[in-house]
Amino acid sequence: MKPWLSCQAGRVRLTLHVQPGAKKTEAAGEHGDCLKIRLAAPPVDGKANAALLAWLAERFGVAKRDVALLSGDKNRHKVVEIQCDLDAAAVLALFGLH
Q: PANTHER family from the xrefs (predicted)?
């Protein structure tokens, strides 16, 4: 199991390193004990956080209300929880990691 991924009881918890202001939003592999996400949104007035949560909801095929930012509101290091019934292998496939 990856250190940045936890799947249990219909919930997926991700530990992320977020880089705002990128050319496009994408998963960029692992960064230490985190999954690195490049975000096209600027780090201004919570726009990056909103863009991150919307992108994850779309990626996981869930409603935006099912994606919650648990920590890291004003930090590049974030913990996000997604309400879904995916296992670790499915989550890794969503991000193109194996």
A: UPF0235 PROTEIN C15ORF40
pLDDT at 94: 93
CATH number, domain of 25, equals 3.30.1200.10
CB 37 within 8 A of CB 58: no
Cα 58 from chain centroid (whole Å): 11
Residue 48 φ/ψ, nearest 5 degrees: -65, -40
Low-confidence ranges of the chain (pLDDT < 70): none
Tell how many helices (H) and how many strands (E) occur in the chain.
Answer: 2, 6
Helix spans in the chain (H) = 47-60, 88-94
Domain span holding position 34:
5-95
Q: How far is Cα 57 from Cα 50, in angstroms, rounded to an integer?
A: 11
**Count of domains forming the chain:** 1
pLDDT score recorded for residue 41: 94
The tokens of 39 are what? 């975000």
Q: What is the spatial distance between Cα 74 and Cα 29, in angstroms, rounded to a whole number?
A: 22
